[in-house]
Design a protein that fits this description.
Helix 1 packs antiparallel against helix 3 (49-68) and helix 3 runs antiparallel to helix 5 (134-160). This protein is mostly helical. Helix content is 57%, strand content 0%. It starts with 10 loop residues before the first helix and ends in a 5-residue tail after the last helix. The protein contains six helices and no strands. It has a single domain, classed as Up-down Bundle (Four Helix Bundle (Hemerythrin (Met), subunit A)), CATH 1.20.120.450.
């Protein structure tokens, strides 16, 4: 998993590379955990690592497939989007996140440019007459996933003392 993003030749590939690096940080946070550990909420927050994984996956799908492309998506209630429900596993969400990430990358690479307007630019949570482009959505996703990757680092270290750098070395076979 990439930690330090290479210098890209264009903005689109650069943003996708940064998003993938942040995705990797969230995926690493659940590396080697039991389902019980992934569901644990060891801090003052109600966040768990499994819940964060599920949230960033569903959030990415919402922004790219829903808002940008205008696809109808089924969504769970807000609170359920932040926790693993009965029958949901970390392995299932890692697989779903991989599929969602691949679809995001495919969508972004297929656009004529990053100035492409979101299909749902008039969504009720946007200020009136505001504009959301593919660039805005991709930048927002980088911010959102990076923020939650930081939360994941704190939760993981609280759970078992493992730091992000230790996990990077382990996942990458000793290379940081």
């Amino acid at each position: 998993m990439v930690v330090l993003v290479a210098a890209e030749t264009n903005e689109r590939e650069g943003l996708l590379a940064f998003l993938e690096a942040h995705r990797g940080a969230v995926r690493r946070s659940v590396h080697g955990l039991t389902e019980e550990q992934a569901r644990a909420t060891p801090t003052a927050s109600s966040l768990s690592l499994g819940g964060l994984l599920k949230h960033v996956a569903t959030c990415e799908q919402h922004w790219t497939e829903g808002t940008l492309m205008g696809r109808e998506l089924t969504q769970q209630p807000w609170a359920d989007q932040h926790r693993l429900l009965d029958g949901e596993t970390v392995a299932d969400w890692l697989k779903q996140y991989e599929e969602i990430a691949a679809e995001t990358d495919r969508i972004i690479r297929a656009l004529p440019d990053l100035e492409t307007d979101a299909a749902l630019a008039d969504a009720p949570w946007f200020p009136p007459n505001s504009r959301r482009t593919a660039r805005w959505i991709l930048t927002h996703l980088c911010t959102e996933v990076a923020r939650h990757a930081g939360h994941a680092d704190i939760i993981r270290e609280t759970l078992d003392g493992r730091t992000a750098l230790e996990l990077v070395a382990e996942v990458n076979g000793g290379r940081e």
